[in-house]
């Protein structure tokens, strides 16, 4: 198993990089999250996951061990392949995915292109206990994080905004500012509604 590759960065694209390691160029498929973490410069180390199929050997590269761990957890779910897992890591940060699964946030997981309600529910059902155990997350602290979102949504509904429209806007705010308090969420939502 190839656990990481370190060498000279010879090609950098939003979907893949090529790392020259002692004269051999390795192409690694990456997420947008990893792409944004790659520093400018020649020397690069990425943690890897090697996927072997009948017709191909594909390397996936990750900027951190936690991102690779989330990727491996995601592909262990029936119906989630490497490309969907990579899309999830491109749309959301590993921390957002981890917290979304731990808190049972179906809407967050479903916001990723290519994931429907049933697949999002399956991801949460299959991985919630593993995420809580691996990352030692207390369910109480996770549900507390979602309270700000719930309070902001109910306040926006009282102000006369539609639930679905308000939820879309609040979800975008929560992705951009995961630690935002209720007032900040409401102020930002009012600017976008």
TrEMBL record:
Name of protein: Holliday junction branch migration complex subunit RuvA
Ranked from the top, the taxonomy reads:
Bacteria, Pseudomonadati, Bacteroidota, Flavobacteriia, Flavobacteriales
- InterPro entries, alphabetized: DNA_helicase_Holl-junc_RuvA_I, Hlx-hairpin-Hlx_DNA-bd_motif, NA-bd_OB-fold, RuvA, RuvA_2-like, RuvA_C, RuvA_C_sf
Keywords (A to Z) from UniProt:
Cytoplasm, DNA damage, DNA recombination, DNA repair, DNA-binding
Q: Where are the transmembrane segments?
A: none
Tell me the organism.
Hyunsoonleella aestuarii
Role, per record: The RuvA-RuvB-RuvC complex processes Holliday junction (HJ) DNA during genetic recombination and DNA repair, while the RuvA-RuvB complex plays an important role in the rescue of blocked DNA replication forks via replication fork reversal (RFR). RuvA specifically binds to HJ cruciform DNA, conferring on it an open structure. The RuvB hexamer acts as an ATP-dependent pump, pulling dsDNA into and through the RuvAB complex. HJ branch migration allows RuvC to scan DNA until it finds its consensus sequence, where it cleaves and resolves the cruciform DNA.
Q: Which family does it belong to?
A: Belongs to the RuvA family.
Per UniProt, subunit arrangement is: Homotetramer. Forms an RuvA(8)-RuvB(12)-Holliday junction (HJ) complex. HJ DNA is sandwiched between 2 RuvA tetramers; dsDNA enters through RuvA and exits via RuvB. An RuvB hexamer assembles on each DNA strand where it exits the tetramer. Each RuvB hexamer is contacted by two RuvA subunits (via domain III) on 2 adjacent RuvB subunits; this complex drives branch migration. In the full resolvosome a probable DNA-RuvA(4)-RuvB(12)-RuvC(2) complex forms which resolves the HJ.
Subcellular location, in the record's words? Cytoplasm
Q: Which SMART domains match?
A: HhH1 (SM00278)
Where does the Helix-hairpin-helix DNA-binding motif class domain lie?
72-91, 107-126, 153-172
What does the comment on domains in this protein's record state?
Answer: Has three domains with a flexible linker between the domains II and III and assumes an 'L' shape. Domain III is highly mobile and contacts RuvB.
Q: List every stretch annotated Domain III.
A: 146-193
Q: Name one Pfam family in it.
A: HHH_5
- Name of encoding gene: ruvA
Keyword Metal-binding part of the UniProt annotation:
no
